[in-house]
Amino acid sequence: MTYQAASGGGARHMRELISQMGVIHNSVADQLDLNGAILDIDKRVAETIRSSDMPVDNFGVPLAGSLIPWIDVALDNGQSKEEWKGFVETNKILGRSDSPIPIDGTCVRIGAMRCHSQAFTIKLKQNVPLDEIESMIAEANDWVKVIPNARDITAAELTPAKVTGTLSVP
């Protein structure tokens, strides 16, 4: 599964996301002190996201405060073009175009400005100890950093906000 930032659509999409964030903020700015009833704030946010005030010329639907579960056009096989590209490009990079590795996925546009994220499962034909896999990944590229599967370090290190503008690949 890929979680793709607004930047994947280009600069116009990034600007639209910022505009959407501003519209949402402006709709509740007068209620953001600690005395504002959060359910009232939430209701106003939801109404704003669904309203015609939200700029959606580029995405077609609101992204701020939401997500878009489909990227690009539909293909005859039921995939989106972006999902198909994941299969094709991965096999091209790995030099496996003649004997492709089966890859299926879902591509979701998220409200991050930059920095796509990815979650994947690898099915192996033999048992390989986890520490060996982690070592292979860590040593494959100078930019790659293996993050332990622990709440605090995961929350601190595995976010677009942490790595955007860097060459780090956690």
List keywords for this structure.
170 residues; mainly alpha; three-stranded mixed beta sheet; 3 strands; 39% helix; globular; Asp-semialdehyde_DH_CS; NADP; methionine biosynthesis; oxidoreductase
Describe what you observe in this structure.
Pathway: Amino-acid biosynthesis. GO terms for molecular function: aspartate-semialdehyde dehydrogenase activity; NADP binding; protein dimerization activity. Keywords: Amino-acid biosynthesis, Methionine biosynthesis, NADP, Oxidoreductase. The protein is mainly α. It has a domain at 124-170. The chain is built from six helices and three strands; from the N terminus they run E-H-H-H-E-E-H-H-H. It has helices at residues 11-28, 38-50, 81-93, 130-140, 151-157, 160-163; strands at 2-4, 107-109, 117-118. It has a three-stranded mixed sheet with strand order 2-1-3, with no helix packed on it. Helix 1 packs across helix 2 (38-50). The relative contact order is 0.16.
Strand and helix layout:
Blueprint: E1 2-4, H1 11-28, H2 38-50, H3 81-93, E2 107-109, E3 117-118, H4 130-140, H5 151-157, H6 160-163
Parallel strand pairs: 1-2
Antiparallel strand pairs: 1-3
